[in-house]
Each structure stands twice: as C-alpha cells, then as structure tokens.
Amino acid sequence: MNTVKKIGENIRLLRLKKELSQEQLALHSGVNTSYLGQVERGENNPTIHTLEKIANGLEVPIGSLIGDSELTDCVEKNKKTVLAVFNPDDLKQLMIDAIKTSTMKSRSETDTTNTHNDEEEKR
Questions:
Q1: What is the pLDDT of residue 86?
Q2: Which helix or strand (DSSP H or E) is residue 115 part of?
Q3: Residue range 26-42: average pLDDT?
C-alpha cells in the first residue's frame, strides 16, 4: 500500500475509533468534507499543514496519521475490536436495521409496561 493510501486509512480508522463522521471531523479540523473523503480514500495527497489540522481535529499527534503504532496497540489491547469500512448502501442498511430493532425493543417494553399496569388496575 502506498504512503498516501496508508495515511488515508489511518485517518479513517482513527476517525471511526473516535466515533466521528467525516462531517464532524471536517468541522473540527477546518477541512472541507469532500476533501477529507478524498484524503481518506488516498485520492488526494494532503500537505503537512492539512495533516496537522486533521490530527488536531482527531486530538492525536500528527505522527499517528503517518505511522500505525497507535492503531496496532488498539487492536492488541482488545482482540475483540473489529474495524470495518462499509460502503454507503451497507451503512444505510445497518442504520435502518438498528432503528427497526430499537423501535421493536421499545414497543416490546411499552407493551410489557402496559400489561403490568392493566394487571394492577384489575386488582
């Protein structure tokens, strides 16, 4: 993997680790959102100044964007951590499924509460 792609991958992994969207990181960094996406995909070669802005937005040393020691340490400390990159359609489906599951769970809890309240009213 070439250096530009490796830097982009490191930025993406650090962003996901901090649970930030591209838009949130762009805002924190003062970098254009579409430009950040190009950097993450390795399509654009960022300047040192831009890397410094992104590192500040991620609250990490600039070296962690270039090297992978922090990411390796993260994986070594928690073998159960799985980092995945989803395409937009997969991410959209994942969000829809999460909302459906959350809604069904909420309805189930409401039904249980209502049943419990009905039983108390009968007494």
A1: 58
A2: helix 88-122
A3: 95
Question: Would you say 1 and 62 are in contact if contact means Cβ atoms under 8 Å apart?
Answer: no
- H or E element that contains 94: helix 88-122
The token pair that represents 67 in the structure block = 């090297």
| Continuous segment of H or E residues that includes residue 49 | helix 48-58
**Region 61-83 average pLDDT:** 59
Quick one: how many helices (H) and strands (E) in the chain?
A: 7, 0
Instruction: Output the CA angle 53-24-14, nearest 5 degrees.
Output: 65
The helix (run of H) or strand (run of E) holding residue 9 is: helix 3-17
pTM as predicted: 0.55
CA distance 76 to 70: 10
